[in-house]
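Sample A.
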Amino acid sequence: MGNNSFNGVIGYQAVPGWDACTGFGSIDAAAFIEQLAEVDVAAPGPQPQSPPPVGSGPIVLPKPRSQYPIVRVLATIQTVEADEDVRGVHHHRLLLRDVHVLAIRGADPSIVKGYAFVAIRYGDDEGLQGPIPGLQAGHSIELQGEYIPQNDTYPSVGNPGDPVIHFVHHPIGFVVYEGRTYE
């Protein structure tokens, strides 16, 4: 048990339950962490399938699938590259500029550069249902996906080595272009 008496001044005695000496007592950190882990796993995560429009309330991001943070950004399309087809999987390839973070989970927004590369997968079970019509340089685009910093990327078809916004499709992300949401 114990008490908080000191230097001859009588304090309060610690007792089971709440008391003036210890409140509810000291925490068992290992048990607390275990409880938090169970609650986190048991609770359903937020679903990005129906993204709220910008300015309609708080943005809730899903948990990252990897070590990379989830980011929701608004950007300007700098360049629209030719679509890529690799073994039947199609991608729109875009270079973005004026990238502004709307929300981020898993990192500080300061890691996000003002430019990025994105390959928007479509036409299979993992990507968007189909291509996004009318993608044009100079137009705004909103994206949600994993943010891969420049130090972890490498130059590839269409990407000079810029940071990458990845998984801009279900279950992590989506694209909003010309007022329409693509998931």
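Sample B.
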Amino acid sequence: MFGGLLAELNTQYLVSITLVSLVVSTVAVLVSTAVSLPVAVAVAFGDFRGKSLLTSLISTGMGFPSVVVGLVVLLALSNSGPLGEFELLFTPQAMIISQTILATPVVLSVSLSAVESVGDDLREAAFGTGATTTDVGVVVLSEARYGIVTAVLAGYGRAISEVGSVLIVGGNIVFSDQTSYTRTLTTAITVEARKGNVETGLALGAILLALVLGVNALGSVLRDRTPGSTGGSRTVGTTLGGESR
């Protein structure tokens, strides 16, 4: 039964869609993480007017409608938009931009909570050893790594499950040989369901579910292998490559 079902599926079609989804989502989350971590440390360490408002805005961004993000990116990348000269609309690059915008508030908000949960005594101990602000930031990120892994996983889940924005800016394009250019797992499921191709839709859904479960399993393994905090100055000395004082 299952052998006959698999024989009816277009393997090339499924593989190409999966690869596009993986590449776009992974790059978007990597860019989002690279942007979010320094900002999370800066906001957590900072003492400035409007900090509470900024934190609230970051949290609000987690629920920002994806179709609105897609529309804004569409306008920015269109021929009449400020970035139209780069001709990125309806390309994987446009989808990466859209998914990065969607994932960043998620990664940033969870990372900020993780960084803020690190005790002030650790920062003071780090500064007491003569560490620079950058060194202290590295120490704090090391202590908050459990929460940061969770942040990255949450951002990845938001990116790979996205439908609206990638459909708007990517165009859901496939080539004549049925290989994907900008069609992702989520947009493909939508298309196949509308066409009545239940078997293909179920196969795509199973792949998406397997990817999400696999990413979360990897995150669980990383968290299980993450040693807990061993205490202020000891951790500071180890992280900075010296001995505690």
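B remarks: Confidence is low (pLDDT under 50) at residues 1-6, 229-245. The two ends are 68 Å apart (CA to CA).
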